[in-house]
Design a protein that fits this description.
five-stranded parallel beta sheet; 21 helices
Length: 631
């Protein structure tokens, strides 16, 4: 085994394999099977608690494992609840992943639903449990305690937030109440909060025929992503009939005589509030850790975020008490700072880590990257790692690139543009984060990028990434390859790039040159730029002003890069516009909507005047809007 590793693998990798083999393959098998009988109490089921319980049983057949769940369901697919409300998922039973009976039969677990753990006595090593069905209380002893109470929806201190018809979505009971409130296609729903749950609810209520108003106090939807990466999603919501109110705060809910709810909101910059009647309000303004038990027991809790503080083994400051899931404070994998990121995948892994450590395994939780994705109507958005606004706020140096390739070979039918943004260390090229937007292929790129970040990889590694290729699946150069080429080129100095918002804020004398063909230029261009097609550039260098910084751009950056190389080798100071024209229009629209059209041609094989006017009407004013916004 060791000789094979040293023969076929690079030395660093071979060393890791050797170390792993020494710890696992050559260790006595009994090390992984616990014969010590322990009494383990788990507070909470769903992702983290149920995962911990099942893992513990696989590691110890003799231990007593008790799971207390406050609600009626111990293990359910909470991520599927919006889609049941929208009738995309029609079988409610499919959302119940495990029942107490199934867990008892398969894993010999003692699962007690509708049992609320009210307090922890750490000295006596007992928990006080309230049986909500019999109203009796018992003291349950433990050797090891695992807290997995999850997170609870935030209800802001808004007058009327506790009225009937104002909902949050945490469990199947909440789901049933919301679904039952959709009486007809005439139902009006108001959603407060435009995060992942808010957008999923907006889409699914529209599928039910409801009229939907989405209220968000920030200037963008989907706060984990950067602003320019979500404007297309805003347009997708509007296109599908969702009213989106940004920079607007819900201030009051009151009941009308007819039994409906009067919503009152205050928009930024407006002197008077707006009001409308609605049939239901869904509060989706985020969640907070349910850390009451831990705090009352004297365990360390972050006073600001409410997250239970744990080490890399998911232990609290009491070595006999573990905490997992949405209730815990985690370490940001990229930034190495404490944070709160409630996600199902990390919760499951944390449950496994805690179970391992309880039974002597030296398992560690690496941290959370916040890898997330959603689809709203026909558009997908995803992210992993750090965002630009987070890096800027923390004053962490970074560089970014935008690329706009197709999700598969352009000549194969059905190809769609992906808007891909990569953030990386400007010196080493280490990947810090990424975001993607498009109609297809978004998940694949973000999943690969997530693993690349976990592996400490760089933009130079993305250059060497070898994907599976056939025209219906990919291009010979994957979008991540393209991002790697551009990012590595920036670090190597093959090109200097400038971002549009950066160019607008500086005082240098920039001269914008659109190197696309005239029909493309006429269909929409950056105000103030001149059109010199790439094929004509060498012959027209004398038209360029001496002493100015020449900023060439094209549709997405490739021809702009070619122009940049020509200009720099001819003695001009040149900077390529990052992402090209699409990088600018990304701030105000969908690349598929804006730039994947084909202009109808007349008999002379040129765009007709009507087609030109239609294209200009479609996209011509968007860059001006973006410019005004950024300035």
């Amino acid at each position: 085994m060791l000789s094979l590793a040293s023969r076929f693998l690079p030395s660093a990798v071979a060393a890791q394999v050797t170390h792993h083999a020494a710890k696992t393959m050559f260790a006595p098998f009994i090390r992984y099977m616990s014969t010590e009988r322990k009494k383990i109490v788990i507070v909470g089921g769903v992702a983290a608690g149920a995962s911990a319980a099942a893992r513990m049983r696989r590691l110890s057949e003799t231990s007593d494992i008790v799971v207390f769940e406050k609600g009626p369901d111990v293990s359910f697919a909470n991520c599927g609840m919006p889609y049941f409300i929208g009738n995309t998922i029609t079988d409610r039973a499919s959302l119940v992943l495990n029942t107490p009976e199934k867990l008892r039969k398969t894993f010999n677990l003692d699962v007690r639903t509708q049992h609320c753990v009210e307090s922890i006595n750490r000295e006596a090593k007992t928990v006080c449990v309230h049986d909500l069905q019999t109203n009796k209380r018992i003291e349950e002893p433990y050797d090891k305690l695992v807290l997995a109470p999850g997170a609870e929806p935030v209800r802001p201190p808004i007058p009327g937030a506790d009225l009937d018809g104002v909902f949050t979505l945490r469990n199947l009971v909440d789901m049933d109440r919301i679904a039952a409130s959709v009486h007809s296609a005439d139902t009006h729903a108001t959603i407060v909060g435009a995060g992942f749950i808010g957008l999923e609810m907006a889409e699914n209520l529209r599928h039910r025929g409801c009229t939907v108003t989405l209220v968000e106090r920030l200037e963008q939807i989907l706060p984990p992503l950067d602003e320019e990466m979500v404007t297309s999603m805003e347009r997708e919501l509007l296109k599908n009939g969702v009213d989106v109110l940004l920079e607007t705060t819900a201030t009051q809910f009151t009941k009308t005589e007819s039994g409906r709810i009067m919503c009152e909101v205050q928009a930024k910059g407006e002197s008077t509030p707006s009001k409308w009647e609605t049939d239901m309000v869904i509060m989706s303004v985020g969640v907070r850790p349910d850390s009451r038990l831990a705090k009352e027991a004297g365990l360390a809790v972050n006073e600001q975020s409410g997250g239970i503080i744990v080490n890399q083994h998911m232990q609290t400051d009491d070595p006999d008490v573990y905490a997992v899931g949405d209730s815990v404070e985690v370490t940001d994998f990229v930034l190495h700072k404490p944070t709160q990121i409630p996600l199902a995948g990390p919760a499951n892994r944390q449950g496994r880590v805690a179970a391992d450590h309880v039974f002597g395994r030296d398992s560690e939780y690496r941290g959370t990257q916040g890898t997330s994705i959603l689809r709203v109507f026909d558009l997908e958005a995803a992210c992993t790692g750090a965002s630009e606004k987070t890096l800027t706020r923390l004053r962490i140096p970074f560089e970014k690139v935008y690329v706009f390739p197709k999700d598969h070979a352009g000549y194969y039918p059905g190809a769609n543009t992906i808007a891909l943004k990569i953030l990386f260390d400007p010196q080493t090229g280490r990947l810090l984060g990424g975001q993607a937007l498009g109609k297809a292929g978004v998940d694949k790129r973000i999943d690969v990028l997530s693993m690349a970040i976990q592996g400490g990889m760089t933009v130079f590694d993305l250059e060497e990434y070898e994907p599976a290729y056939a025209p219906q699946f990919n291009s010979a150069k994957d979008p991540l390859n393209m991002a790697g080429f551009v990012g590595a080129g920036v670090i190597r100095g093959d090109q200097e790039q400038v971002h549009y918002e950066e160019m607008l804020s500086r005082e240098t004398d920039d001269y914008l040159v659109d190197v696309r063909d005239p029909p493309e230029f006429e269909a929409g261009h950056i105000p103030g730029s001149v059109n010199i097609p790439l094929g004509d550039l060498r012959a027209r260098l004398g038209e360029l002003p001496a002493g100015s910084t020449i900023v060439p751009y094209c549709r997405q950056g490739m021809r702009g890069y070619f122009a940049n190389r020509i200009l720099r080798q001819r003695g001009f100071k040149a900077e390529n516009l990052s992402g090209g024209y699409l990088g600018v229009t990304l701030w105000n629209g969908d690349p598929n909507d804006m730039c994947d059209y084909q202009l109808p041609l007349d008999e002379e094989n040129s765009p007709s005047q009507a087609a030109m006017e239609e294209a200009q009407e479609k996209v011509g004013d968007r860059v001006r809007q973006v410019t005004e916004k950024l300035v």
